[in-house]
Each structure stands twice: as C-alpha cells, then as structure tokens.
Specification:
The chain has helices at about 25-40, 50-60, 70-75, 80-90, 95-110, 115-120, 125-135, 145-155, 180-190, 205-210, 225-235, and strands spanning about 1-5, 10, 15, 60, 65, 140, 165, 195-200, 215-220, 235-240, 245. It has about 250 residues and is an alpha/beta fold. α1 (about 25-40) packs antiparallel against α2 (about 50-60) and α1 (about 25-40) crosses α5 (about 95-110).
C-alpha cells in the first residue's frame, strides 16, 4: 500500500515509529523530568555548579527549556541517563554507592509525576494508526524508553490496540543507532526491513533505519533533532506525523 510521507510515496508493509518527540511532545515529558531529577540532586543552597553540570551532562537547557540535538537526554536509555547523572555526582565528590542511591531516589521522584500530565500528542496519533491498520499496514513503536512507561503511554494515547510490535530500551538490545531494535521488530512481525518506513526525530532513529536496511527514513520536527542535520540523513522531513497519509484505495 502506498503511504505518502509529505510528498514522498513509499510502498509500505509496515511503519516503525519512535515515541518521544515523534508521537508525543518531547520537552513536555523529558524536559520536566530532567528538571525534577536535577532539583532533587542539586536542590540545596550552594549547589549551583552541580546543577549546571547535571544539565550539561544530560544535554538540557533549563532557560530555553530545550534539549540539545544528539544529547543523552535526546537519545539515551533511562538506564544510561541514570549512569550519566551518577558519574556527574561522583565527579563532584559523592562516593559511587551514594551517587547511585541519590540518582535512584531522584528517578523515583520523577516517577511520582502523573504520566497523563507528561503525555502530549505530537499529532493525531489515533487517526494515523487507524488509517494504517485499515490499509493492512502493520505498526511498530521502537523507543529507548522503558517498556512499562511506553505501554502506559500508548494506552493513554488510545492506540495500544493498534500497535503490532513494541520494542523498548530495557529489552536488552543494543540501543539506537544500532540496528538491533528495528531488526527485533522486523523479526517479531515477520516483515522485511526494506518494506518499512521508520519515522523519528533524531539521528539515532535515522541511523538505526539505515543500518537495519529500512526502505525509507523519515524525520519529524516535533522533537529534539536539528532540522538541518536531520535533512542530510532523511529521505523525507515532515513537520509532524500529521503529514503522513495513506493513498486512497
């Protein structure tokens, strides 16, 4: 079935979507979480240097409320982010065991936020997934986020029943831009990567697509990627997933 990604047609058997920055607004979730983590780790008076270093290590600008392209916050798994914050604490004089414990507590503080308040659709996800499924096109979600939060996010979006495969950052696979996550989705669905369009907001998504042999690499501008850089590595660049349509008939 022909699917149009902007003006670019592609005969797709399945479409693999990133989650954060592609299906949902990136900064609404991860910017808020980063601020909660850093406040918990460097909230005491006199900790401004540590606060700034934590934000630099994560790749988040709290003034502009913007995640830097290709930064850990944009593409790393939650486990990798925990390690980065623990290393930063260690460099500021905290013992390694205490650094891990403090980061664990900071992550727990972020978990206290309602996921429903952090999930803001980056387009009409339900309508798009429904049209793809009606056309016989399989839908996958491939994300570096943890499985529990991913599955809950899809439920909140009302599309969990429309997704055929979910591959997550805590599934024990090499993370993007390695091809492993997309290849796992391909194997699970019994689909050829060459008949897949991959839609994402970072070079990690596009690199995964290229290395796995995906047929089309599609960048969206609703996340943490730099538009100029994304355009060099994508076959199509869209404002959002709302620029995707299934051909009539």
């Amino acid at each position: 079935m022909i699917v149009y990604f902007g003006d670019r047609p592609f005969d797709a058997e399945w479409v693999a979507f990133d989650k954060d920055g592609t299906l949902i607004a990136f900064e609404v979730m991860w910017g808020r979480l980063a601020e909660v983590w850093v406040d918990r780790l460097a909230g005491a008076a006199g900790q401004e240097t540590l606060r700034q270093e934590l934000y630099r290590s994560l790749g988040y600008d709290p003034v502009q409320q913007r995640t830097k392209p290709q930064s850990p916050l944009a593409i790393a798994t939650t486990g990798e982010l925990q390690t980065i914050m623990a290393v930063t604490l260690y460099r500021h004089g905290t013992s390694w065991p205490d650094a891990h414990e403090r980061v664990r507590l900071a992550i727990e503080a972020g978990d206290e936020l309602s996921l429903a308040d952090l999930v803001q659709p980056a387009g009409d996800v339900g309508s798009l997934f429904g049209r793809l499924r009606d056309a016989g096109i399989r839908v996958a979600v491939v994300t570096t986020d943890a499985r529990a939060d991913t599955e809950e996010t899809l439920r909140l979006l009302g599309v969990d029943h429309l997704v055929d495969s979910v591959v997550c950052g805590d599934d024990g696979l090499a993370s993007k831009p390695a091809p492993d996550m997309l290849l796992a989705a391909s194997e699970g669905l019994g689909q050829d990567p060459a008949r897949c369009a991959v839609v994402g907001d970072t070079l990690g998504d596009l690199g995964m697509a290229e290395r796995a042999g995906a047929g089309l690499r599609v960048a969206v501008l609703t996340g943490a990627g730099d538009p100029t850089i994304l355009a060099r590595h994508a076959d199509a660049v869209l404002e959002s997933i709302d620029d995707i349509r299934v051909a009539d008939g």
